[in-house]
Each structure stands twice: as structure tokens, then as C-alpha cells.
Design a protein that fits this description.
The complex is a heterodimer of chains A (107) and B (113). Chain A is globular. In chain A, the strands form three sheets. In chain A, strands 2, 5, 6, 9, 10 and 11 form a six-stranded mixed β-sheet that branches. Chain A is built from no helices and eleven strands. Chain A has 107 residues and is mainly beta. Helices cover 0% and strands 45% of the residues of chain A. Chain B contains no helices and eleven strands. Chain B starts with a strand and ends with a strand. Chain B is an all-beta fold. In chain B, a hairpin with an 8-residue loop joins β9 and β10 (103-104). The chains are: A mainly beta (107), B mainly beta (113). The A-B interface holds A 4, 6, 9, 32, 34, 43-46, 49, 51, 86, 90, 94-100 and B 33, 35, 40-45, 48, 58-59, 90, 92, 100-107.
Chain lengths: 107, 113
């Protein structure tokens, strides 16, 4: 069965520290993985997708098929990064979301 | 802040009553989705529609119904058969079902007492 696991419900780091939000998936096919973000009082929106292999707002995520992971990383966290982050797996028919990780970046 | 709208923002109903949540989009998107968001459980797909006059059940469709009579509208009815209806409901749309990005509405918080 397809599943997305985000093991950390809450993550807190200080400004300027590196941050890594973990995401693991289970899917027997070729996965399409995404990170969505929801800032306070804003809508849920796409942050990045693994196919594009680009950095958005300083965040990157690498698909590791061997470890079935798609962790989101940023070398120097900023206060404006505080938000709810969802990892999502797209299979043939639908998009499955993880439970989310609330990131707090403290000054 | 248009694009995809949901109304109302907050909705209160008594147990045993059906309630319909509105979702409208002016993005000319073919595909639309309804998710339920509960604390600690992420988003779970209720129903989706690939094109007008078509819709499919998601993972947790029991107790819900939808219609897609117009491209821009995808209302969700929470029926009295839904055992735990109090939740935050998110509607989304995408240009087509094969599109990788979904665009989300602001959500409706439904409270049933």
C-alpha cells in the first residue's frame, strides 16, 4: 500500500541552524514526490517536486530510492520558514499526504 | 485572493443534519479534489473529479457525496451517515488529473454538535 510517513510532528530549530524534515514513503512503482507548505494564515501550496531538482526558498529535497526517503533540507533556517510542511506521494490515481511536520524557527 | 474559493469559512451543524460545503474555481481547471484534514493525520482524500460530470471515491468517501455538474463547482455534502464529521475540509483543483500541482482553497472548518 502507498504510504507517506513524516516521523516528526514538531520540529524546532534556531535561526541560522540547518534543518531537515524527514519523509519516508512506501510505493512499489516509480514515485513522484512533493513537498507542500502552509504558512500561517495562508493556503497550502506546492514548495517543490523531486523531478525538478531545484532549490526553492533555499530548500532542497533529494529522492533516495534505496532508503525510500525524500527529506527536505535547508542549510540555514530563517524565521519565515516557520510553517506546516507536508510530504506528498503521487501514484497513478491520487496524491497521498503525510501527517505533516510543524517547523518552528526560533530567533 | 481568488482562484479557488470555499465557503463558508466556519460552519456549525447539529448532529443528524446534512450539510453542503461549497468549492468554486475560476482557473478553468478540469480536476478537483476534496480532502479532510485532521490533526496528526495529514490530508485524506474524500472524492475527486477528473472532469465535469465525473467523480471518483477517495480513501474516506463513506458518509460523503459530491456532484460535478459544472466545471467550476465541486460541492461536498457531509451526510448524517458520516460518523465523525467535525474536521477541516480542503478543496483543491489542478489543470488536469495528470498535473503535478494542486491548488488549494482556504478551507472550511465544520463543527457538528
Amino acid at each position: 500500500a502507498q504510504r507517506v510517513t513524516q516521523p516528526e510532528k514538531l520540529l524546532s530549530v534556531f535561526k541560522g541552524a540547518p534543518v531537515e524534515l524527514k519523509c519516508n514513503y512506501s510505493y512499489s512503482g516509480s514515485p513522484e514526490l512533493f513537498w507542500y507548505v502552509q504558512y500561517s494564515r495562508q493556503r497550502l501550496q506546492l514548495l517543490l517536486r523531486h523531478i525538478s531538482r531545484e532549490s526553492i526558498k533555499g530548500f532542497t529535497a533529494d529522492l533516495n530510492k534505496g532508503e525510500t526517503s525524500f527529506h527536505l533540507k535547508k542549510p540555514f533556517a530563517q524565521e519565515e520558514d516557520s510553517a506546516m510542511y507536508y510530504c506528498a506521494l503521487r501514484t497513478g490515481n491520487d496524491m497521498r499526504f503525510g501527517a505533516g511536520t510543524r517547523l518552528t524557527v526560533k530567533p | 485572493d481568488g482562484g479557488i474559493t470555499q465557503s463558508p469559512k466556519y460552519l456549525f451543524r447539529k448532529e443528524g443534519q446534512n450539510v453542503t460545503l461549497s468549492c468554486e474555481q475560476n482557473l478553468n481547471h478540469d480536476a478537483m479534489y476534496w480532502y479532510r484534514q485532521d490533526p496528526g493525520q495529514g490530508l485524506r482524500l474524500i472524492y475527486y473529479s477528473q472532469i465535469v460530470n465525473d467523480f471518483q471515491k477517495g480513501d474516506i468517501a463513506e458518509g460523503y457525496s459530491v456532484s460535478r455538474e459544472k466545471k467550476e463547482s465541486f460541492p461536498l455534502t457531509v451526510t448524517s451517515a458520516q460518523k465523525n464529521p467535525t474536521a477541516f475540509y480542503l478543496c483543491a483543483s489542478s489543470p488536469s488529473y495528470r498535473s503535478y500541482e494542486q491548488y488549494f482553497g482556504p478551507g472550511t472548518r465544520l463543527t457538528v454538535t
